[in-house]
Amino acid sequence: MSGGIVIIGAGIGGLVAAAELAAAGCAVTVVEALPHVGGKLRTVDVAGAAVDAGPTVFTARWLFDDIFASLGERLDDHLTLVASDCLATHAWGDGSRLDLWADPARSRDAVGSFAGAAEARGWDDFQAEAKRIWDALETRYMMAPVTTPWGLTARFGLSGLPQMLAINPFQTLWAALHKHFRDPRLIQLYGRYATYCGASPFQATATLMLIAHLEARGVWLVDGGMHKVAEALARLAVARGATLRLGERVTGIATARGRVSGVVLASGEMLPARDVIANCDVSAIADGRFGAAASSAAPGVRAKDRSLSAVVTLMVADVGDAALDRHNVFFSDDYAAEFRQIFGERRLPAAPSVYVCAQDRGAGARPTGPERFQLIVNAPAIGDALTPEEIEACQLATLRTLSRCGLDLRPQAQVVTTPATFETLFPSTGGALYGRASHGWAASFRRPGSRTKLPGLWLAGGSAHPGAGVPMAALSGRLASAAILADRRSMRSSHPMATAGGISTRSAATAASG
């Protein structure tokens, strides 16, 4: 049996694992069904303009600094990052608007001007609690292997139990926000942070306050778009000996003598491997998309437990002199109804909130002429169950929300991505973009860790521990690579020497394997 490693899917988690394993001397091959690296970090051509079609916010720079440093590199030598002065602009239908800033004092003053001195004091308390939660969980949970509630308790120890209880796992985010704010707009604004991991603020645990601290530590703009992060990691992996096979789809995970022995490609080719990292949604494994032998290795996600999907409109449009920054949120008047329709009634919201990424704003002079936009409306993860008429109605409702909040978009060209598109790109998700929804205190413990029940099969990606989002996916790749190396050391196996790396590309496959 070969001692090599095959990684299914070139998303962020898979690329981080590939670079670190190759740097450790392992022979690594990454197989990706799409003709490009990055997974959800991708671009789509809209009338000749490359528009970022996936995650748009770069946070946790210190994590990527550390990843690049572990490879003997400097992040700044591979990516051009610009610290964002404005974190995001928020607007409501009553004409009110609140900008939050990288400078905490400026954000506090903005909240005070927006909602009064009492709300500014509440903002202080909220930010302090968000930091406490982050500090409590960063090394004990997010950067550590998956554990149980009892295991997490043990990591805190007796002296740390008050800190553990302070993470507030048994209260919903929505309820917890009422401790800090009275202004319903601020509750709505910070409730939105639940959607960063695909959840409803009315069902998500208050622990998700930590996202506010993550964002408060800085947001950066990536010159050229977010997909450049994936491309930089891919180059580092190849430079250290990894091979990327793009436009090729894995159809099976082979086993021999009770453990992984390699993968089978759609072409019929067998790639022997001692270890396989599945950088895909765990439900694809459980659904048997890689064969019966692997289907019981990891639990899938039931349809009712899926996270949010989205209707994403990529657009080239004129907006005139509209006051926009890079990240903008236009809120609906009835947040409770919006999430009741998505998670309770499993349908598109009648009056959605809309996130607008103005991809030509935020750095340098305001552009003149048509600009690139990504518009995101939260949607239920129900695959192809939405009709064209429902999608069209959602598009009209999106424009109504924007118009009500004072933004008049005049599209010249657009491409619409629906939950059905995401199901095609990322099979067995139903279009869910974040794996399991973080609803209830136990949801985080239900995400599988790096190790599966099938020896030699490992997991990485947003549906695995520690969760969704670019930084968490990167951490999942680090955890998977560390687990493999530890496993090999424990078996007293020597590392095979890496072979010369390279990238090969075939025609695009119809569905992504990771």
Per DSSP, the total helix count is 15
Low-pLDDT ranges:
493-500, 507-514
Strand order of the largest sheet: 7-6-15-16-17-14-18
Largest sheet: 7 strands, mixed
Count of β-strands: 20
Quick tags:
15 helices; alpha/beta; 7-stranded mixed β-sheet; 514 residues
Description:
The protein contains 15 helices and 20 strands. It has three domains: 5-41 and 61-73 and 225-301 and 436-505, FAD/NAD(P)-binding domain (3-Layer(bba) Sandwich), CATH 3.50.50.60; 103-217, no CATH class; 304-425, no CATH class. Helix 1 runs parallel beside helix 15 (470-490), helix 3 crosses helix 4 (117-142) and helix 4 packs across helix 9. The model is unreliable at 493-500 and 507-514 (pLDDT under 50). By secondary structure, the protein is α/β, with parallel strands linked by helices. Helices cover 32% and strands 20% of the residues. The protein has helices spanning 12-23, 61-70, 104-115, 117-142, 149-156, 161-165, 173-177, 184-191, 210-216, 227-239, 282-286, 335-344, 388-404, 419-425, 470-490, and strands spanning 5-8, 28-32, 43-46, 49-52, 81-83, 86-91, 97-101, 220-222, 243-246, 250-256, 259-265, 270-272, 275-278, 309-318, 327-330, 354-358, 371-379, 410-417, 457-459, 502-505. Strands 7-6-15-16-17-14-18 form a seven-stranded mixed sheet. The longest helix is centred in the first third of the chain and has 26 residues, at 117-142. It is globular, with a radius of gyration of 22 Å. Helix 1 (12-23) links the parallel strand 1 (5-8) and strand 2 (28-32).
